């Protein structure tokens, strides 16, 4: 599944267009490598996402094409979440 679609379906980022923009700015790493919005992701991959002053690392547990809001959090688990001191 494409990175931007995974971020939308899992509800980490609400809109696919926003996920595409963030990825194309180089603010997302897949397995510690810079990723574009079209990068393919699979179960077991680790994503590091930089949102302003917050950096979140998540591990993909499963890939599902469509999901309900209540089931979206089962697609990933948060490994680390850090905040920048001087933003």
From TrEMBL:
Record-linked Gene3D superfamilies: RNA-binding S4 domain
Domain RNA-binding S4: 1-64
Domain of life (superkingdom): Bacteria
GO biological process: rescue of stalled ribosome
Cited SMART domains: S4
UniProt keyword rRNA-binding, yes or no: yes
UniProt cross-references to InterPro entries, sorted A to Z: RqcP, S4_RNA-bd, S4_RNA-bd_sf
SUPFAM superfamilies given in the database record: Alpha-L RNA-binding motif (SSF55174)
Entry keyword set: Protein biosynthesis, RNA-binding, rRNA-binding, tRNA-binding
GO molecular function terms listed in the Swiss-Prot or TrEMBL record: ribosomal large subunit binding; rRNA binding; tRNA binding
Function, as annotated: Key component of the ribosome quality control system (RQC), a ribosome-associated complex that mediates the extraction of incompletely synthesized nascent chains from stalled ribosomes and their subsequent degradation. RqcH recruits Ala-charged tRNA, and with RqcP directs the elongation of stalled nascent chains on 50S ribosomal subunits, leading to non-templated C-terminal alanine extensions (Ala tail). The Ala tail promotes nascent chain degradation. RqcP is associated with the translocation-like movement of the peptidyl-tRNA from the A-site into the P-site.
Family, per entry: Belongs to the RqcP family.
Summary of subunit composition and partner proteins: Associates with stalled 50S ribosomal subunits. Binds to RqcH, 23S rRNA and the P-site tRNA. Does not require RqcH for association with 50S subunits.
HAMAP family to which the protein is assigned, alphabetical: RqcP (MF_00871)
Annotated protein name in UniProt: RQC P-site tRNA stabilizing factor
Source species: Limosilactobacillus antri DSM 16041
Gene name in the database record: hslR
């Amino acid at each position: 599944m494409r990175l931007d679609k995974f971020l939308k379906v899992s509800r980490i980022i609400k809109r696919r267009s926003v996920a595409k923009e963030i990825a194309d700015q180089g603010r997302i790493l897949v397995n510690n490598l810079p990723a574009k919005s079209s990068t393919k992701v699979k179960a077991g991959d680790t994503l590091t996402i930089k949102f302003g002053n917050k950096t979140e690392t998540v591990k993909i547990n499963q890939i599902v094409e469509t999901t309900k809001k209540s089931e979206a959090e089962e697609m990933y688990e948060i490994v680390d979440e850090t905040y920048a001191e001087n933003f």
